[in-house]
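forwarding from the other thread:

> can someone predict this with adenosine-5'-diphosphate?

sure thing
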Amino acid sequence: MNIILLGPPGVGKGTYAEILKEKLELPHISTGDILREMAKEETEEGKNIKEIMDKGNLIPDELITEILKKRLKKEDCKNGFILDGYPRTIPQAESLKKIIKMDKVIDYAAKDEIILQRLGGRLTCRSCGAIFHAKNSPPKKNGICDNCGGELYTREDQTDEAIKERLKVYRNQTEPLIEYYQKEELLIEIDANAGLDQVDKIIGESLDAIEGEE
Ligand code: ADP
C-alpha cells in the first residue's frame, strides 16, 4: 500500500505518520526529515538547502524528486510506504506518478487560525532539543529549559514570518494537489482541526479510510 499524507504545516501530519507507520508496518518517509539531515552538512548543497528551508520556501522540484527516488528504491519500501511532505507541488505529483502508482491520499484539513496558533510560540532548547510552547506548555522559568537548564530559542523556520510564509506556500503550491488527487479518485479528507487532542479519532478515521470501510 503506497500512501500520501497531505495537509498544512502544523496539522500534526508527522505525528499521525509515526502512528500509522506502526499500525500498518510501513516505513514513514518524511522529506522534511531527510532535508533537515542534509541541511546539517557543511557542503555547498547542505548550506543551500538550509537557507531555503529557513525562509520557509520549497526546495527545487528536480532536486527533491531525485532524493525521493533514491529513497523509494530502498528495500524497506517494497511492500509500500507512507509519504509525508511529498508531493508538495503539481509537478512533483506528476513526477511521482511516473515513478510509482499510489493507492491512497489522505488530506488532513485545518484552518489557518488554528495552524498559526499551534505553530507560533514554539520554543526549542539549544542544548538538549526539548520543545516547549509559550502558551500551551511553557517552561517553568522564562527562556530556560526545564530539563537541562539550557537556553530556549525560536528555530529559524518557526519565526512568525517564516510560519506565515510556509502557510502561504502551502495554500498556493500544495493545496492544488487536493483537487488533483480528487480527480485521480485517490483522495480521502479528514478533519484535523482538533489536532493532537483527538489523535485517536483521527487515526481511527485514517485506518478505516485506508482499509476501505465507510
Ligand atoms: P512542515 O514543518 O511544514 O510540516 P516539513 O518538515 O515537511 O514541513 O518540511 C520542512 C521544509 O523542507 C519545507 O518548508 C521545505 O523547505 C522543505 N521540503 C520538504 N519537503 C519538500 C518537498 N517535497 N519539496 C520542496 N521542499 C520540501
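The chain has a mean pLDDT of 93. thats all i got for now
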